[in-house]
Amino acid sequence: xxxxxxxxxxxxxxxxxxxxxxxxxxxxxxxxxxxxxxxxxxxxxxxxxxxxxxxxxxxxxxxxxxxxxxxxxxx
Length: 75
Known about the structure:
By secondary structure, the protein is mostly helical. The chain has one domain (2-74): Arc Repressor Mutant, subunit A (Orthogonal Bundle), CATH 1.10.10.1150. Helices cover 57% and strands 8% of the residues. The protein has four helices and two strands. It has helices at 13-20, 28-38, 44-60, 68-74, and strands at residues 2-4, 7-9. A two-stranded antiparallel sheet has the order 1-2. α2 crosses α3.
């Protein structure tokens, strides 16, 4: 369960895999690399696009903040 301002999300599958790695120790690129290995049957570019889109959505909804290092990695 991810608590956000004014709501909560029940996470499972890839969304849970992503959020579990948003621990302040993993960079965005590390998260992408790890999930590309886990979901190796999917196209790596698609996995990256989906992760970046999900992280952007969580950021817009106030569920997470990026450090300067992560923000640079998203560009």
